[in-house]
Each structure stands twice: as C-alpha cells, then as structure tokens.
C-alpha cells in the first residue's frame, strides 16, 4: 500500500536514511494502532540522478506493507504529476513534445491519457484531454496509466 505524504525530495536525497519520515498513526487497511518500521525501498525520480530511499512500515495485525511516497507523484511514475501535465499540455497546445524528456515516454503518456479519457469519461472528452486529465486526477485515477 502506498501512502502519499508531504516530503521534500531534496531533503530525502541529502539525508537518505536519516530523513524524518512521518510514522502512520494506524494501519490504513485494518486500523491497527501500531505499525513497525520495515526498512527502506529504492525509488528513482526524474529530478535526481541517484536512487532515493523511501520509508516502509509493516502492520503486525494484517501484515500489510505500507510505503510512503512524496505527494505530487503517481505511483510507479518517476516524473511529477505537474511535469506530466506540463508535457502533455505543451504537446496539445504547441504540437511539440518537451525536448528534455524522451519522446517515446511522452507519447506513452499521451496514448494512455487518450485511452483513459475515452474509457472513463467518454467520447465527449476526446477533444478536451487536459480537462480529462484533471477530472481523472480528481476522481483518484492515474490518467496516464497503461491499465484502465
């Protein structure tokens, strides 16, 4: 289970294991009031060339592993939500992808967004993809995920 928390990537990068991650007050699955530290997991983000360590916890009741992740990032994505939106917006408005990122990666986001918008919001949103992006985020979905 991934829980987004307020965290500063720069501080995580500088402090690594010493970063003061907030401990969950209870397990989100079974509401057990005590969770144990369960080490760290490696994650990569576009802004940093090296790996970052994200904190994990484990519930002794249901044995759920809880991973903390900085807010502003979709699960399993290295780019921030803002950066993804910016790239898609530039492509839709100017007809060009952002030069600093891989074109194939940006095309993947665009195609996934088109599929998600058509499947979840309907054909009426096909011409309003950026609105669809925002609507999908508001509903708790990842608008650029490959799976629907």
Description:
The chain is of the alpha+beta class and 148 residues long. It has two domains: 2-70, no CATH class; 81-138, no CATH class. 34% of the residues lie in helices and 17% in strands. The chain has four helices and four strands; from the N terminus they run βαβββααα. A four-stranded mixed sheet has the order 1-4-3-2, covered by helices on one side. The model has no long low-confidence stretch (mean pLDDT 95).
Outline the secondary-structure elements.
Blueprint: E1 2-5, H1 9-15, E2 36-43, E3 52-58, E4 65-70, H2 81-94, H3 103-121, H4 129-138
Parallel strand pairs: 1-4
Antiparallel strand pairs: 2-3, 3-4
Helix pairs in contact: 3-4
Compact description:
This protein is an alpha+beta fold and 148 residues long.
| Sequence of secondary-structure elements | EHEEEHHH
Per the principal axes of the C-alpha atoms, what is the gross shape?
globular
> Which whole number gives the mean pLDDT?
95
> Taking Cα atoms only, what radius of gyration do you get, to the nearest Å?
18 Å
Provide the number of structural domains: 2
Q: What is the count of helical runs? A: 4
Give the beta-strand count: 4
Strand content: 15-25%
């Amino acid at each position: 289970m991934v829980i987004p928390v307020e965290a500063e990537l720069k501080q995580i990068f500088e402090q690594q294991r010493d970063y003061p991650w907030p401990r969950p007050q209870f397990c989100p699955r079974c509401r057990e009031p005590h969770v144990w530290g369960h080490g760290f997991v490696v994650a990569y983000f576009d802004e940093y060339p090296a790996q970052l360590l994200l904190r994990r916890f484990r519930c002794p009741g249901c044995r759920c592993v809880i991973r903390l992740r900085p807010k502003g990032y979709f699960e399993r994505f290295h780019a921030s939500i803002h950066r993804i939106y910016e790239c898609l917006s530039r492509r839709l408005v100017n007809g060009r992808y952002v030069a600093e990122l891989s074109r194939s990666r940006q095309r993947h986001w665009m195609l996934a967004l088109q599929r998600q918008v058509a499947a979840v919001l309907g054909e009426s949103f096909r011409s309003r993809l950026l609105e669809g992006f925002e609507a999908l985020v508001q509903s708790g979905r990842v608008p650029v995920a490959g799976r629907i």
